[in-house]
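User: Second chain of the day. Same drill as before.
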Amino acid sequence: MSQSRTTHSRGRVDREGAGVTSTEELRKKVESVLTRSRARSAVLTESVDDTDLTAQHSPLMSPLVWDLAHIGNQEEFWLVRDVGGREPVRQDIDELYDAFKHSRSSRRSLPLLTPDEARDYVSTVRDKVWDILSSSPLDGRRLERDGFAFGMVAQHEQQHDETMLATHQLRTGPAVLHAPRPPGPSVAAEGEAVIEGGEFSMGTTLDPWALDNERPAHPAYVPTFAIDIAPVTNGQYQQFIDADGYDRPEFWSERGWAHRTAEGLRAPQFWDRDVDGSWWRRAFGVTEPIRPNQPVVHVCFFEAEAYAKWAGKRLPTEAEWEKAARFDPSTGTVRKYPWGDSEPTERHANLGQRHLEPADVGAYPAGASPQGVQQLIGDVWEWTSSDFGPYPGFEAFPYAEYSEVFLRGDYQVLRGGSFGTDEVACRGTFRNWDHPIRRQIFAGFRCARDVADV
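Assistant: Same format as last time:
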């Protein structure tokens, strides 16, 4: 049971490299991110009928109604029971919505809450959270300091929103989600940038809402390397296909070739070739010709790795990716985002389901890094060559099941976020991970290569 508290206005660090914010300002920020995440959850669940909500659209994904109630259950556990010290709302459903108790493919058969019950549940939990937020000093225990628990819950909901968006991509039937097209290119996005070798500060200790696997900040050395200015595009990837890249084992790792062969991979997921040889892509119920300047999406790690080898390059390590995204050589310091420490806007990056597809390369010059690398944040998650492991000094917090149980498993690190990632769950230090065979996620890649140190 939490102790009684009094609200105060002590200044606090809001983000890496930024100033301070009052408790009231922080409370407004928490309210904003929680409101935004719930509005998005509503769009994703109210756009389909109850049959679609309870259906198993893919064995890789949960029914949408499970994700909705799971969001509420996590929010209840951390904010209502722990931070608020309140009595449980529905303790009887904890096991049903424990992600480690039941595989995604088995959740359809569980006695889940009905769509109406799930909606009522998450609404009841959120009403209690608003009351708790109004009286919380957003300080004290590490879990509550700087509003971490609220930020963690908002990130959790947005991560499940992106998962639900991926489920929408896998469902069949007419389009139910709609969004405007992303902006077109306004600058060239070709070639590569050379990142000088040396040490930089990787990860973070100061960002109050960073999750445990992003911590702590630590020195990391990378030799001089070159990285592509933009992610690999559909047009570039089509050249790999046309060069029989899927039929040439010399470009694939032994494990990658075995997977390509077993699964019969011939092109990115959701691509189809017409009788005239043209390529089309299905996205959220709409089938259109591929756009050659759009970053390729829905490729697995093995496909990205094979393309890079065919192109005479390789995938970047996650340390290389982060240095390209955060390091400012003019000051020797790191930023929260490639463009600086200010939060993303629609000028900087394609985030938050604002659009339902990646933008063409060259669409976000305001989001470029100091060395001109573009679209590192948003559009597509980017596969790296790094396995998901702990940073030196890693400490699981506040629970082992977020990161620790996945460390050193069969997971590759992805960086940068996608068009389906919200800004609260995307920054230069944010680490995503998945099995190298996964293609339903909004993942693409960019290439890198070795450069002799100068």
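Confidence is low (pLDDT under 50) at residues 1-20.

User: Great, on to the next one.
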